[in-house]
TrEMBL record:
InterPro entries: Transpos_ISL3, Transposase_DDE. Residues 187-306 form the Transposase IS204/IS1001/IS1096/IS1165 DDE domain. Transmembrane segments: none annotated. PANTHER family: TRANSPOSASE FOR INSERTION SEQUENCE ELEMENT IS1557. It comes from Dyadobacter psychrotolerans. Pfam families: DDE_Tnp_ISL3 (PF01610). This is Transposase.
Length: 311
């Protein structure tokens, strides 16, 4: 289930935006459906919007926060405000706004990491705050340069941004942003496969919203729940029915279904049979635990007493 959600990262990111911005729901919902129709024609829909901004296997949640942080910072919002809005660590947001791609590039050991703190320094350089105060703050946060080089870089930074400070007024500050909510693919998978009645109100509301926005994710979740219930139903032919649904062209469980087909007889027997080796495995694990506790001093007679004494 989690892998299917990861392959639908574009849809997840758009759904995060829709869920946190109900005013544009009708327009953006149509855009999600168009992307979904395009992805249905692909075997592995792994392409990402703004792919040039990311390197490696970046989750939809981190991609979303990275894009939003850069966009909001470009509009004039402060680092602290963006951090609260995206419900993210302030250090992560400070790093995001200074990066061209995610994750960050490796910095040479011969250079200082001054650029990591540019946003923080611009934001906190105000009347009454000295360079020494700023320097001590970023040193505690990991700055690796000397005070003289810091002052030199700081002077150049303030000269370049002087017009920003001279022209800013109180009326130009952006409106206050609400806290934005996101969910990891791991948590979404647990939410989809668990009891919806036990979910928190926000989790349940988002899950319903996600199902409305993406029929692919909804169908995948329903199929996963059907497989989960196989061992409770114990009906002959129930596995065949699930496999037929899982092998459909648009299914996200085709690889899983092929794996079951490769050892069909054993899996089917486990599904329909009332006999289980679970109790035997439990007793074996119990015996191993007792033996580990008595390592180096256990004779068979003592082991027998310990096993029977714990029954």
């Amino acid at each position: 289930m989690q892998r299917v959600l990861q392959r639908q990262s574009n849809i997840l990111k758009e759904t995060f935006r829709l869920f946190n911005n109900q005013e544009s729901i009708n327009t953006e919902k149509r855009q999600i459906k168009q992307r979904e129709e395009l992805q249905r024609s692909q075997v592995f829909p792994l392409s990402n919007k703004n792919a040039s901004l990311f390197t490696g296997n970046v989750s939809a949640q981190r991609q979303f926060k990275f894009e939003m942080a850069k966009d909001l910072y470009a509009k004039g919002y402060k680092i602290k405000t963006i951090s609260k809005h995206l419900n993210a660590n302030i250090k992560s947001i400070r790093k995001y706004v200074n990066l061209e791609v995610l994750p960050s590039q490796v910095v040479s050991h011969g250079l200082t990491n001054f650029d990591m703190y540019r946003a923080y320094l611009i934001e906190n350089n105000r009347p009454g705050v000295t360079y020494k105060d700023l320097y001590h703050n970023i040193v505690r946060d990991g700055f690796n340069g000397k005070y003289t080089s810091f002052c030199d870089r700081m002077n150049r930074l303030m000269t370049a941004n002087n017009s920003l400070y001279m022209n800013g007024t109180a009326d130009q500050w952006p409106v206050k942003l609400p806290t934005m909510k996101t969910w990891s693919t791991t948590k979404l998978a647990f939410m989809a496969l668990g009891d919806t009645e036990k979910l928190k109100p926000d989790d349940k509301k988002f899950l319903e919203f996600l199902y409305q926005s993406s029929s692919v994710i909804r169908a995948t979740a329903e199929l996963a729940i059907q497989f989960k219930k196989l061992f409770l139903v114990k009906q002959i032919g129930s596995l065949d029915h699930r496999l037929q649904n899982a092998l459909k062209p648009n299914s996200g469980f085709k690889g899983f279904a092929r794996g079951i087909e490769s050892d069909y007889e054993a899996v089917n027997q486990a599904v329909i049979s009332n006999v289980s080796n679970g109790p035997v495995e439990g007793q074996v694990n119990k015996l191993k635990t007792i033996k580990r506790n008595m390592y180096g001093r256990a004779s068979f007679d003592l082991l027998k007493i310990m096993v029977l004494g714990n029954t």
